[in-house]
Amino acid sequence: MGELLDISTPHCEIRRSGPVVTVTMSRPEARNALSTDMLVGLADAFAYIDAEPGVRAGVLTGAGGVFCAGADLKAMGEPSADPRVRRRAGEIENYHWKGLLREARPGKPLVSAVEGYAVAGGTELIVGTDIRIAAEGATLGLFEARRGLFPMGGSAIRVPRQIPYTHAMEALLTGRSYTAREAADIGLVTRVVPDGRALEAARATAEEIAACGPLAVQAILRVHRETEGLPEAAALEISDRIGWEVMASADAREGALAFREKRAARFTGE
Q1: Helix (H, G, I), strand (E, B) or coil at 82
Q2: Comparing 72 with 152, which gets the higher pLDDT?
Q3: Mind listing the UniProt keywords for this protein, alphabetically (predicted)?
């Protein structure tokens, strides 16, 4: 799984293997419910993925055959027993929102690997990722309305933008649960794999992304995020400005040369 990074916390294991960083929510005794230790680790992990030039994609998963059962309000309100986590909680502005991918989403793709329960805040985390691989036995759902709560991770905005409106409203307003197959049918997840294989499939997808030109990949994400809701003409202006920078890059020249020479491209991000 790669090198364990020192930004890991008691509830969040962060490992790097070449250009891919795997972030594992690790509180299996509580079905990986969110805690201060977990949210600080997630916030630092996503910032690391964004800032490190050699990192090209991230994978988000959970330990013990579970993704994340949502918020543990008691554990989120208590200070960590780990001195470094306490310090980072004071240093990272809005670490809760950063850890939930509501704020400061990385400019590089995130692939989620979903096994078991991924409900409430767990589904909100999935909604913040770009590609979503779910195991056959996974359960997803935005349960907040059913509990008289509100999906504070941004799903009331993001889900209707990501999947058809009526499906989004059913998910948000009924708080019902979804099997992996149902979630795939409405476009909430990308595809379904056999139980126990989600992480393997997500890492393979992340490696595919890492083999592409990093400038191109990051530009595609940036254009999508910067043009949401804009009229087509205004969106195309932004797309052209960002796209022509990629087309003029050394990576673009290397991609064309590698194609002609029938070899794998050696992208440098320049």
Answers
A1: coil
A2: 152
A3: Lipid metabolism, Lyase
DSSP calls for 114-132: E-SEEETHHHHHHHTSSEE
**pLDDT of 168-198, one tens digit each?**
999 999 999 999 999 999 999 999 999 999 9
Q: For residue 254, indicate whether it is catalytic.
A: no
Separation CA 208–CA 202 (nearest Å): 10
> β-pairing, 57-62 with 117-119?
unpaired
Rounded to whole angstroms, what are the CA distances from 83 to 10, 58, 77, 86? 11, 26, 16, 5
Set 13, 78, 91, 124: catalytic member: 124
Give the Cα separation of 189 and 180 in Å (integer).
8
Report d(CA 175, CA 13) in Å as an integer. 30
For the chain, give the longest Cα–Cα distance.
60
CB of 118 closer than 8 Å to CB of 140: yes
Q: What pLDDT score does 81 carry?
A: 86
DSSP 79: P
Domain boundaries, the chain: 3-210, 214-261
**What DSSP state is assigned to residue 68?**
B
Q: How many residues does the chain have?
A: 270
Q: Does 3-210 carry CATH code 3.90.226.10?
A: yes
The DSSP letter of residue 60 is E
Span 145-158, average pLDDT: 95
Catalytic site includes residue 144: yes
192 touches 82 (CB < 8 A) = no
How far is 1 from 21, CA to CA, in rounded Å? Answer: 9
Q: Are 163 and 105 in contact (CB under 8 A)?
A: no
By CB atoms closer than 10 A (0-12, 13-18, 19+), residue 14 is buried
